[in-house]
Sequence to fold (766 residues):
Amino acid sequence: MIERVQITVRGVVQGVGFRPFVYALAVRRSLHGRVLNTAGGVLIDVEGAPDTLEQFESEISSYPPPLARIDSVSSRGGFALARYTDFRIVESDTGGESLVPVPPDVATCADCLRELFDPGDRRHRYPFINCTNCGPRFTIVEATPYDRARTTMRDFGVCEACRAEYENPLDRRFHAEPNACPTCGPRLTLADADGRPVSPGSKPGDDVVSRARELLSRGAIIAVKGVGGFHLACDALNAEAVGRLRGRKHREDKPFALMASSVETVKEYCLVSEAESRLLLSGARPVVLLERKAGATLPAAVAPRVGTLGFMLPYAPPHHLLLEGSDRPLVFTSGNVSDEPICYEDEEAVLRLRGIADYFLLHDRRIHVRADDSVTRLVEGRETVVRRSRGYAPAPLHVAFEFGRQILACGAELKNTFCLARGRQAYVSHHVGDLENLETFRSYERGIEHYRRLFDLHPEAVAHDLHPEYLSTKYARAIDESLLKIGVQHHHAHVASCMADNDIEGEVIGVAMDGLGFGADGRMWGGEFFVADFAEAERVAHLDYVPMPGGAKAVREPWRMAAVYLSRALGEDFLNSGLPFVRSMDARAWATLSRMATTGTNSPETSSMGRLFDAVSSLLGLRGVANYEGQAAVELETIADRSHGERYEFELAGNGGIIKAEPVIIRAAEDVLAGVAPEVISARFHLAVAHLIAAVARRIGDERKLDRVVLSGGVFQNVFLLRHAGRLLKSSGLKVYTHGRVPTNDGGISLGQAAVANALILRGKV
Fold:
């Protein structure tokens, strides 16, 4: 008996070789029918014996292609027989609601690399080699379903040889939409600082790459157009070139990302575990933060005063060609001027990077969506994403609950991402950046519209931060007035983000610590303890408020927070304490700032743990003025003596709801005067914060009968603190949840906003 069934497969199943996989399975089992992409996934219309169809469906779920991710497989029977005589892959159906996740960009696979360096292969040294298992995806897609005509590859014709591969279901390049070769595909061009070609680029690009390698070896800075945008590259071992790049880019101290040809080269500079090697070699090819080896011979300007280096391996063919056979790493930093979004269009890059780059390595494959490199690290054996972008986005995150309505969550101001949510999927965007300039904000607006079109999303509610001056908040309030607008407190969103990240629901002890977030009382929070679920967050303890004289300027000048805390702890007599900090401080400026703090003039109050880290860093003479966000805290963590066990003590005032840091500041100041090493003082402070977190969480747990603790916020990027706090909490019998899939910093806020908004809607509270 022959039956006809239709099988629908949803998930990451387009652009990953899924239809050829289905074709091969069907042919092997002598089944007849059709397979096609639809807006809702992959549809398989197949006829055969019932037991054979059952085995076929089971194999689809059990042995998918390496890049596929199956979310669901459903089948329906009872159809009249079509009496197919063969099995075919047919054209896509473009109708209906789009529910198909577009694949992230994938690093060049081993098969393509073998061909790239095979003199006998027709794609030998071709800089745009790819196949069904690798290559650009999200950054070139203009619309779904994912077919060549809806990507930027539509700008190029297809030669007979490439078409034969593309149309052969048993070929590795069957329906590989970016498929190309030297005859018909994109080309590289080397241009001078004004964008004028210095090499004809009439061949596959090898001469161009060889010339670029030579220029890099002579100290040149080259803007390299990649998969998601431009990088600025130079020889990482050439101190003069690195210093020149840092000066031209106006990036005083923030560490540069590095690219090396192999894991073995990375191991010359960093300690690399087997798990970290696998992460470096993964298809996402993120920047991996690794512990720096003592005595690693890199110029100080590569990553000043930090204990980690951010390395990635080549992920696009031009990278492999640039680094071929080399054991010298390259600086490979974002192609932008400090704080601007990365360049991704040729003319824009030449205009904005003129004066930084000596040369441009360009290509003529358009980038539709810019995407920064992702940044990640391993913490206690678990991958912890620091910046989620190329290689990860736009793959949706699956959550344990159902979104009752489609929701747009607009994210925060810094490290912005947005999130569009539907069903059990949260589409957290690629990293947008800091919404502090017009160009980044325009990129943010375009990104939201692209996601809405790409995934056929129609938000019915918009979640946003409470801060009225955030551009993301203004955007949320300005769009379609018919949409439900839901304000979500910043730190509640942090806690909810970590809950959603870990697929947990119900009440938890939420610990949210960061630089700043607008509080429910109008003050700036950042050192908070909650009893929270998705719908509610009761603030049960927090750091005592202190003024921030000058507002945002106190973030850029940590010495102000050190002076505020010393004044609170010791009174104005701290000026006569003999502390080196006081001798280096601008006393006249402090006189003005002190009056501002006393009168509340331009001195918003904050409970921020991040600002306390700034204060201690500055007190130790590490960082009086910050050149990038979080620098003072990063440098404080870097020097901490990992072998030290003593700690300071915070004061829990009254019923324990207000946490006073003055005792910590007093002890730290005494240690400075006594000549205690800054490394030891840093360790004592870190351990004080870790024990504070554990003590307050234990108290809340005992009082509220809760045993789950959620840690979120930018402060928990501090691995030394996170490890100690986690171990102390676990030793108290508490279950500890930290971030993995989305960042603990503000890059994860949008997911939390969506989760909170959804809970409020479902409970009828908005």
Summary: The CA atoms of residues 103 and 137 lie 6 Å apart. The mean pLDDT is 94. The two ends are 56 Å apart (CA to CA).
